[in-house]
Design a protein that fits this description.
Elements (H helix, E strand, L loop, with lengths): L2 H10 L4 H10 L6 H11 L4 E4 L6 H14 L8 E4 L3 H18 L3 E4 L5 H9 L4 E4 L1 H7 L3 H7 L4 E4 L2 H5 L2 H17 L3 E6 L5 H9 L5 E4 L6 E6 L5 H10 L3 H16 L3 E4 L3 H14 L3 E4 L5 H12 L5 E4 L14 E5 L5 H8 L10 E6 L3 H15 L13 H15 L1 E3 H10 L8 H13 L4 E3 L4 E3 L2 H9 L9 E6 L5 E6 H6 L6 E4 L2 E9 L4 E7 L18 H19 L4 H9 L6 H7 L1 H5 L9 E7 L2 E5 L4 H19 L4 E5 L2 E5 L6 H10 L5 H9 L3 H14 L12 H11 L3 H14 L2 H12 L4 E5 L24 H13 L1 E6 L6 E5 L17 E4 L4 H9 L4 H20 L1 H8 L5 H8 L6 H18 L5
Parallel strand pairs: 1-6, 1-7, 2-4, 2-5, 3-4, 5-6, 8-13, 9-11, 9-12, 10-11, 12-13, 17-21, 22-26
Antiparallel strand pairs: 14-16, 15-16, 17-18, 19-20, 20-21, 22-23, 23-25, 24-25, 27-28, 27-29
Helix pairs in contact: 1-3, 3-4, 4-5, 7-10, 10-18, 12-13, 16-17, 17-23, 17-25, 18-20, 18-21, 18-30, 24-25, 27-29, 27-33, 30-31, 30-32, 34-39, 35-36, 36-37, 36-38, 37-38, 38-39
Keywords: ATP-binding, DNA damage, DNA repair, DNA-binding, Helicase, Hydrolase, Isomerase, Nucleotide-binding
Family: Belongs to the Lhr helicase family. Lhr-Core subfamily.
Organism: Halomicrobium zhouii
Length: about 950
């Protein structure tokens, strides 16, 4: 008898006869590796965290021991809760578990937000043995009297995709819900199913509330076969580029991926953003590739259609975002393609881990990279994945709005509850283990003042009041309440997807073209009341791609530092005289890529003649008003460092400092009177312990914090319902002022810090710079590496030119806008007029001067500032702005008026647009459009 069969028998003999018989009937003669390792401890009743790739039988691993226990017992209520983060997973679980239920005479049911009242009533009167549900639905179940009786029989709770929930407020809410269930049922077995994470013990504690947990982990890295490829451009790609309305480089990516899809039977093609999914999907459609598009902004019906088509073999490939990382069943996948760096080791493991698995086959995948940074990053991530170096899940600790939500939940459970009992239940949940009594009291008092709960001071109890019920059912979910617009086809009336509100507000106008579901659509109407965008299909393959907020996957510091290490080793060899071919050959021994790809990744280093930014050296390059801090620390540290620099430089200049960040650079646009040397001085002298206070102060007036405040306030019941479009900037300013020194403000700041920043790690970086552990060098020019950042490159998949109708829409809108023309010579004449009516060279009808400032129609205060002659700081800035505007109009005439009339384009940016010396009027408007979009994208960060 082989070792494998012995191990299999050992696993399955831990189960009862009925289950073993069902296994034989189902054809399960040999368990998968997770089943071999996990079934014995789970069958003995231990809490367990099972870490393995999708498709390796994790669901059965958890459920076979649970079924075995349930089949042996009689009960009235629910014996097991199976919690999934997505409704789509509910559907999958039901389909996969039904056979077992029928065979073992166990009833399995599903409950989520769309479950009918009839089904809910049936479940309450005659509870199933196993209920598949979502975190939010458990919240509602805990308040029903019949369901509370049913929950008293819970003996097992299984959380699928627990790594996904551990890093979110949804997960934090679920941990308290588990403690609330335990108040009814007593202790129960807890089982978590997870993709590979770097901190399994921490995720185990999240699952169990800090108690011991059996960690069962399958080594994924040794079962990966991943290749990194940066396709080279061929003559055929040059021809293909014109057919796809793109450049030869993108054409080479599309051609290479299409060949890979053709070479395999069933391929998942992952991209990092929805806009890339749509843009790449449209190129494949032009090419005639048999591939579907799948992402979260498509309608449920559209997603199910492509899932089923792929599963049935009708599609050769499925182009998807993180929507397909979780375990939605789409049948067998034999290869996974990742377009662009996956940004994180865990994502590569989750995505490529979906391939193979017919009896533990190797998972095969290809990372197709697009430029030098991307290639080095892809090499680093693949190497770390093979070696099992995975970033932690990042538990979402201590969210105060979740505490508020669960206080209301506990009161709904009980009618009233002693305050300290509520505190003890909440702090049993792992994310709230460090919640202080003082913090809890502040939260409770805030809720009391919002009339959400009643506080009985004498009895020290928390009680239900009229507003509790309404608050609780409006806040079953901890997902922020953000508006989304339905996208409807004007011809058929069918919904084709959704758009984020910020995209609609900042970018969408009638006439604009964008891509969704791989097809081109022109916006015909936007209805803000109904939150719908009506569109019509077009055939023109050029267009703008939808933009979603907060999509960029942050590159962790360990990945960025390995890219820095690669630069240091390879760059040092190149600068020492070694040939690129020799360096690439050396790197082939460590990284899974062929020499041409590694050579493409070294392109920046070949041309770099200055000090190298590496994992051990920060290089600041300066030219004019541009400064780039080249720092290989990853997104969050660079964001924190960048905000610190921006705040302190802005303080010195008395004006805003624009900032752009990627994992390897912080790009700064410096105001007059500030140089790159000031940035160097700040890095060398700023006390690391002051970083947190500096950033919090800089956040105070930012739209980012105000937006977050409104969301958190809604979860506290301070705002009964909040929608972004219904809250003016003035209203948000008043809200921010009113909420200072409240737990709502504390939570909003904490959340911005948690999601976007890395304060402690940034302090360490500053200390390392200041004690010489990390070198700091300066370069008096721009370098190939410094120029490789975001602001120097365009979105690879966006068309080279925006659709002509979009440009025409911009032209018409600006020509129809109104401006104030104001004579700075006599300061008596001013006139508000449409841009279309402005003469080629405006002059003053009173004094004849051509020193005419062109100002936005709401800029009356600028005119007042000029006329008053006051010299306070704010009025002086407005006066200078007026004179810079007049100088542009005097030199460039109506062209300057047009640029200054655009959204978010002040004199400085208008000068940059005009100085490009565009002879083609369309190109001039394209530059304006690009600046408007840049302003819309970045304005939320600055007050």
């Amino acid at each position: 008898m082989t070792d494998g069969v012995t191990a299999g028998e050992a696993a399955f003999t831990a189960l009862g006869e009925d289950v073993r018989s069902a296994l034989s009937e189902r054809g399960f003669s040999t368990p998968t590796e997770p089943q071999r390792l996990a079934i014995p401890p789970l069958a003995s009743g231990k809490d367990g965290l099972v870490i393995a790739p999708t498709g390796t039988g994790k669901t059965e691993t958890a459920m076979l021991p649970v079924f075995d226990q349930l089949a042996r017992e009689e009960r009235f209520g629910i014996g097991a809760l199976y919690v999934t983060p997505l409704r789509a997973l509910n559907r999958d679980m039901r389909q996969r578990l039904d056979w077992w239920g029928e065979t073992l005479d166990l009833r399995i049911d599903v409950r989520h937000g769309d479950t009918t009242d009839y089904q809910r009533q049936k479940q309450a009167n005659d509870p199933p043995d196993v209920l598949v549900t979502t975190p939010e639905t458990i919240q509602a179940m805990l308040t029903g009297s019949k369901l509370r009786t049913a929950l008293a029989d819970v003996e097992h709770l299984i959380i699928d995709e627990v790594h996904e929930l551990a890093a979110s407020k949804r997960g934090a809410q679920l941990t308290v819900a588990m403690e609330r269930v335990q108040e009814l049922s007593g202790p129960f077995q807890r089982i978590g199913l997870s993709a590979t994470v770097g901190d399994p013990e921490e995720v185990g504690r999240f699952l169990t509330g800090g108690e011991d947990c059996e960690i069962i982990e399958v080594d994924v890295g040794s079962r990966l076969d991943v290749n990194v490829v940066q396709p080279s451009v061929t003559e055929a790609d040059q021809r293909l580029a014109s057919e796809l309305v793109t450049d030869a480089e993108v054409a080479s990516h599309v051609r290479y991926i299409a060949d890979l899809i053709e070479a395999n039977e069933s391929v998942l093609l992952f991209v990092n953003t929805r806009q890339t999914a749509e843009a790449l999907g449209s190129r494949f459609k032009e090419l005639g590739t048999n591939i579907g598009v799948h992402h979260g902004s498509l309608s449920k019906e559209a997603r199910i259609d492509v899932e089923d088509a792929f599963k049935d073999g009708e599609l050769d490939g499925l182009l998807c975002t993180s929507s397909m990382e979780l375990g939605i069943d789409v049948g067998h996948v034999d290869h996974v393609i990742q377009y662009g760096s996956p940004r994180q080791v865990s994502r590569l493991l989750q995505r490529v881990g979906r391939a193979g698995h017919r009896r533990d086959l190797v998972s095969s995948g290809t990372v197709v990279t697009t430029h030098a940074d991307d290639t080095l990053e892809g090499l680093a991530i693949t190497r770390q994945a093979m070696d099992g170096d995975v970033e932690p899940a990042g538990i979402h600790d201590g969210s105060l709005d979740t505490v508020a939500n669960q206080v209301a939940g506990l009161i709904m459970d009980n009618g009233e509850i002693p305050a300290m009992e509520a505190y003890e239940i909440i702090t049993r949940a792992y994310p709230f283990r460090d919640l202080t009594v003082d913090q809890f009291e502040q939260v409770v008092r805030e809720m009391g003042s919002n009339r959400v709960i009643w506080i009985d001071e004498e009895e020290d109890t928390l009680e239900k009041r009229q507003g509790t019920w309404q608050y609780f059912y409006q806040n079953l979910s901890m997902i922020p309440d953000e508006a989304t617009y339905d996208v409807e086809d004007v011809a058929s009336g069918n919904q084709i997807g959704t758009l984020d509100e910020k995209f609609v507000v900042n970018f969408a106008t009638p006439g604009e073209v964008f891509i969704q579901r791989g097809e081109m659509w022109r916006i015909t109407e936007i209805d803000e009341e109904e939150e719908t965008v009506t569109v019509s299909p077009i055939e023109d393959p050029a267009g703008e791609v939808p933009s979603w907020v907060g999509q960029e996957i942050p590159v962790p510091p360990d990945v960025a530092r390995e890219v820095g290490e690669l630069r240091r080793v390879a760059g040092g060899q190149l600068q020492g005289g070694a040939s690129t071919e020799r360096v690439a050959k050396d790197l082939e021994t460590r990284y899974d890529a062929e020499a041409p790809t590694i050579t493409a990744g070294l392109e920046q280093l070949e041309k770099h003649e200055h000090a190298l930014p590496t994992d051990e050296d920060v290089v600041v390059e300066m030219r004019g008003r541009e400064a780039v801090v080249n720092a290989c620390f990853g997104h969050k540290i660079n964001e924190t460092l960048g905000r610190t620099l921006s705040a302190l430089l802005g303080q010195r200049a008395g004006s805003t400092v624009a900032m752009e960040v990627d994992p390897y650079r912080i790009e700064l646009e410096l105001p007059k009177g500030i140089s790159g040397a000031d940035a160097v001085e700040i890095l060398e002298t700023t006390d690391p312990d002051h970083v947190e206070a500096i950033i919090e102060l800089s956040l105070k007036n930012s739209d980012a914090l105000k937006f977050k405040l409104a969301q958190v306030a809604a979860k506290f019941g301070t705002l009964k319902r909040w929608r972004g479009k219904g809250s003016t900037s003035f209203g948000r300013d008043r809200l921010a002022s009113a909420l200072e020194d409240t737990p709502i403000y504390d939570e909003a700041v904490r959340e911005v810090f948690h999601e976007d920043l890395a304060v402690e790690a940034t302090k360490e970086v500053l200390r390392d710079i200041q004690d010489g552990t990390v070198g700091l060098e300066t370069v008096g020019d721009r370098t190939p590496i410094g120029l490789g950042g975001k602001s120097a490159s365009r979105e690879l998949l966006s068309p080279e030119h925006a659709d002509a109708s979009v440009i025409q829409t911009v032209r018409e809108r600006i020509q129809d806008d109104r401006v104030i023309l104001f004579c700075l010579h006599c300061q008596d004449w001013q006139r508000t007029t449409k841009v279309s009516r402005v003469r080629d060279q405006p002059d003053c009808p009173d004094c004849g001067s051509t020193r005419i400032a062109a100002l936005n129609p709401w800029a009356d205060e600028v005119v007042s500032a000029v006329k008053s002659g006051d010299k306070d700081e704010e009025q002086e800035k407005m006066t200078q702005r007026a004179y810079r505007s007049a100088s542009l109009v005097q030199t460039h005439g109506k062209k300057a008026v047009i640029a200054l009339a655009a959204r978010g384009v002040g004199p400085h940016n208008a000068a940059r647009i005009i100085n490009k010396l565009r002879e083609d009027e369309d190109e001039f408007y394209r530059d304006i459009l690009a600046q408007e979009r840049e302003y819309a994208r970045t304005k939320s960060f600055w007050g």
